[in-house]
Every structure is written in structure tokens, then in C-alpha cells.
């Protein structure tokens, strides 16, 4: 019974998230994501050349990453470059981008986290993390962080769902304020 | 629960006039599922006499699966063998691929999709009723094939006769009936559709789907002579004795496991035994009524009668000066399956409630340290200290019964915290937290609520809190934190100040600061409960 309620809750939460995006006039993330990934191969590379000279075998792309604003109340979207060797390292690199803000005014919500493993299977991305006590945010910060993680992960069209584990465990809550669905489902396409 | 059911039944009639009154008031609309209030992230609204509620509430409470198709702006709800497809801003839905007209189209508002609750619920076999007085939508779902208790309140014998021959379920179809009676009125804000008669047709199909009881009932209305039309005869039970002793009403029946529906009104309790008759040994007067001997101070009299000959319903009516509360007792039930017993007591009146349960929830604990302060102190210790101060102050209040989710440094899941408060039916829930941000410059006090019933509590508490902390005002906000989303009573989560801010942190660990803030929280609780 409890499990079923949970399922329903997860489902409906997903749906709410999904539908809330639908209400916005702005076309949602995914339509832009493919552009990014294709773009990234060619023009993006040129523009980044001066900032981070990549090792030859490294792949480069620009992704959307999310940070807390100055007052820690809203998410701010930034285009940031990431580099990785294998296609599978792309997600790890994207998540790690959330731990370092490109702008000192913005708060890197994912700071203090260590990514233990990242695995993509059947469109489900499982990310196992560790967290330092210092990275525990307040209620509003936790809400922003979960949003930032979802938005960052789901910009990759090949991912449908995303499971965040803490030290290998599917915990009920990451920081003691928000429930942590296992997994998150992609909201709006 | 009793109050709710009484209200529902008294106001079933108001369904008829509801569409006319739709735009009359702006008060919030409440949602209840089997008597339990549901939390909606955006307030339900009324459109053309139909209540639209956020999809999450529908899906969660009706246990249906939901899919969203962005391209066609389509919501698909699936529950067992029923599939409903609804389209945003379209007055037409597909129920198992069959076209059905909607009186109000689903819409998107504030990022939430709102669906017509009655239509969706009824398609999924959930009964719906509306109470104009409290502006509440009541949903009834029989769980696991359990017998659904049909509630009806009756004020005079004449009305009883009329209502008895009406199955309760078709009431659900009522609003559509009134709507079609006044098409011009309810559609004024939209150009008239070319085929306004179509809703009649589609609605006509509905009662048969939603109320299997209806055909049987019609048959018994016509005449009770044809045995083939009286399926009730097969399963009829006999009430053999009714007695009242030591506040316990015992009813013996034979003919299998008895079913009884209990309805409680202000000064009357009615117990109905469907498909039953009275044993001739139970004496009745010329009117067909008998009385049970009793000497209780709380009860005026206990009557029994064969209430409806056609459908063979036995009724026991307990008249009283005060509202009564019936609790089934199962002491002897195991020994005698035909025996039903209730303990009868005077119901405590909600209006003159003299004791309030208040749950104080210090955040985090145990392995969850919460935030770490600039001087490496833990949020979990700060909030426990503060919550304990609040608890001790509340203990001195004669009308408040305080409880803490944790009083030591222990880890609790969020679900344990809400279950604690929900199970004890607490009146208020206050979760105390210390904030943390990735930037040291962030400082201030904020108060969160989630359910609409909590907003006013959050506002008044925040006003007091801000004065007590003297920190920057980060306002009252709405967010879906677990403990305020999943508690059934008014609930708030306060972030007193930032442990990551030098100035906030320094103040927060001071005794005088904590005493002041604790006093302000107690003042907020008392104001909310109208104490003093």
C-alpha cells in the first residue's frame, strides 16, 4: 500500500513537473538540447579554444548548467563548456560543472559532492554520489539543487529518467527537506 | 469525519443549485477523499459549475496512472480498465476511445494542469459530492471491495420515505442535469456551441455506468410482485433482537454476515440494515415501529422499523438531545458472526474543542546533521534546542498538548515525521530548521507553507518570527517540502536564519535569541488556535 502510494506520488510529481513546463510559453529544454550537441562538435569548439585548450582526445561541448542566484532563491541558467574523453563521461562532466560556478555571484549548489559512479542503461541514468556535511543546504537550497540536477541531466535527450543515490543508497531525502524520487522522470520533452 | 458526512448529506441538495452559484464567492475550495483532506498545490477553481483541480491530486487520490503528450496537449489517465483522454482547453474527452462532451475543459494554470474533478472521478468509479457551505468537494472510493457506507441524513419521516427509494449514487449525475437545464446561463462566457444538445446524450449514458444499483432500484419501485425482479429476496437477513445495555447497542441477525450503514446527525443516529427484515418476535406498534428499552441519560429513545418494504431495509433510529458517537465493538463478534454491537457515547463537539495537539518537528537529527554552520556547529543541535524551548513553553498552556517528533539526537525519515502528526490527528505542525546557502552573504528568516489551509498560519507566524529574529525578511513562500506537503493539518516549515551567515549564526546560538524566538513561535501557535 505504502509502496503504491509512493509510486503514485512519484508519478504525479513527475507529471506536475512535466505539465508545469508545458504551461510556459518558452519552448522547453529538449528542443534546444540537440542543437547544442550538434553545434558543440563544430562551432563551439572554436569559441572555447582560448579558455581551455583541450587535450587532443578530449571531446568538447557546451551545455546548460544551473546555479543558485545571489540570494539563493532562484535558478540561473548558464552556458558552460565541458570536456570529456568518452561519451559516457559526458554526464559526469555535466554534473561536475554544477559544483563550480562560472560567475562568483552565483552559488554552485552541487559543491562538496563527489560523484562515485555514473551509469546509463535503458535511458535511465544512475548517479551515485557522496556528500560532505558542508554541502548540506537549507530547504530552499535543496529544492533548487534538485531542480538544477534534473534540468542539467534531462537536457540530454537520450535520458528518460534519472536516479540519484547517496552512497549507493536510494535514500528518502537527500538533505532532509525534499523527497527524492527514485528515479526522477523526464518532465516535458 | 462525522461532521463532514453530515454536511455532505445535508447538502447533497445544493448540487442542484451549485452551477448558479458558481461565481458567487471567491473562497477557497477544499478537497476530501474518504473524509481526508487533500492538499492541492494550486487552489481548485470553478469553471461553468465544474470544479477543476490540479492533476496531481486526482492522480494521487484516485490511484490512476497519468501520461502527458506535449504535441497534442493530451492528458491520459488510466485506472484498471478505464482510459480517459483529456485535451487542454478542449471540451471533449475520450473515455475508452468513446467521445464524451465536457462541461469544462481541462486547463493549465500557474504551471499546473487542472482537470474537471467530477468527470474524471466518476469515470473512474469514484463518487463525488459538493458542499456549498464549506465549498468542499468530497470524493468517495470504496477500498478493496469493502462495502461503501452510504450516508444520508434524514430529518423527518416523510423525507425518509422519499429518499429511501432513491439510490444514492445517481446524485453524482446531478450537476450535468442542472447544467443542461440552463445551457444559456452556464455558457455565457463562451460563444454557444452549435450542438449544445449533445451533452444531454452523453450524460444520459453516465448514470448507468456509474450506478449499477439504479436498475435494481427501479424494478422494486414499479412493483414488488414479480419475484424475478427482486434479487434482494435471495440474500435477506432477519434482525432477531435489538438490545441496549451499558452503553452498548447489540443487534442480532441471522442470514450471514450482516451489513449495517450508520449515519450520524445532530440529534439522531440511523443504522440501516439493507436486505433485512424484522423478526416477528420484535414487537411493533400500529405504525410499524418498536422501541428498545434503555435507561441512558444520553438517549431519548431507540426505535426500530421495517423502513422500506420494497427494498426491505430495517432501520434503527436513536434519538438523542446531543450528538452521539458510535464505535463498533468487536468483543463478541468473533463468537457470533450475526451479532453487531456499537458503543455509544456523546460526541465531543469540535466547535468547543478545549485541547489542541501541536506537533513540533526539529529538523534533521542523528546521521543527518543538517547544515553545518560557519563555526562548524550543527543545524540538528540548534533546532533541537529551539524546539525543546518551544515544547516547554507549550506545556504550560492548559489548552495545548505539545508533541515533538524527536526530543533527542535521532534520525527520523520525513515520512515518519508526517505519519506521527497525521496519526495523532494533530491540529498544527511546526517544523523548525536552520538555513544554509552556498554563499556566506545570504541571511534572513523565511517561512514555508504548502497547503492552502496553512497559508494564513504561515503569514501570521512569519510576522512574529521576523520581529523576534530581527533578521532580513525573506518572506513567506510556498514550496513542496515533504513534511508540509504530507501533513493533513495546517503545517509550516520555518528557516529561522542562515547558519552559513556569520551574523545569523552568532545570534542563533545565543540563549536569549532562542528564548525570544521560542516565545514568538508559541505566540503564533496560540494565535492560530485562537487561544487567549
Termini gap of chain A? 31 Å
Helix content range of chain B:
25-40%
Uncertain runs of chain A are 17-55
Rg of chain A, please?
Answer: 16 Å
Strand content of chain B: 25-35%
Report the biggest beta sheet of chain A as strand number plus sense, adding barrel if it closes: 4 strands, mixed
Unreliable residue runs of chain B: 16-25, 144-233
Oligomer: heterodimer
Average pLDDT reading of chain A = 80
Largest interface (CB within 8 Å) is between:
A-B, 43 and 52 residues
Short key terms for the protein model shown above:
heterodimer; A: 189 residues; alpha+beta; four-stranded mixed β-sheet; two-stranded antiparallel sheet; 5 helices; 33% helix; globular; B: 532 residues; six-stranded mixed β-sheet; five-stranded antiparallel β-sheet
Q: Can you describe this structure in just a few lines?
A:
The complex is a heterodimer of chains A (189) and B (532). With 189 residues, chain A is of the alpha+beta class. Chain A contains 5 helices and 6 strands; from the N terminus they run αααββαββαββ.
Task: Note the topology.
The complex is a heterodimer of chains A (189) and B (532).
Chain A (H helix, E strand, L loop, with lengths): L1 H21 L6 H13 L1 H6 L10 E10 L6 E10 L5 H8 L15 E9 L2 E8 L7 H15 L7 E6 L17 E2 L4
Parallel strand pairs in A: 4-5
Antiparallel strand pairs in A: 1-2, 3-4, 5-6
Chain B lengths: L1 H9 L3 H8 L8 E4 L2 E3 L6 E3 L2 E5 H8 L2 E5 L4 E6 L2 E6 L4 E4 L2 E4 L5 E3 L2 E5 H7 L3 E5 L4 E5 L16 H8 L9 H8 L1 H4 L11 H13 L2 H10 L14 E9 L2 E7 L6 E4 L3 E6 L2 E3 L10 E4 L6 E10 L4 E8 L3 E6 L9 E8 L9 E7 L16 H17 L4 E5 L9 H10 L4 E8 L9 E5 L5 H15 L3 E6 L3 H4 L5 E8 L3 H7 L2 H18 L4
Parallel strand pairs in B: 1-13, 14-18, 24-25, 24-26, 26-29, 27-28
Antiparallel strand pairs in B: 1-2, 3-4, 4-11, 5-6, 6-7, 7-8, 8-9, 10-11, 12-13, 14-15, 15-23, 16-17, 17-21, 19-20, 20-21, 22-23, 27-29
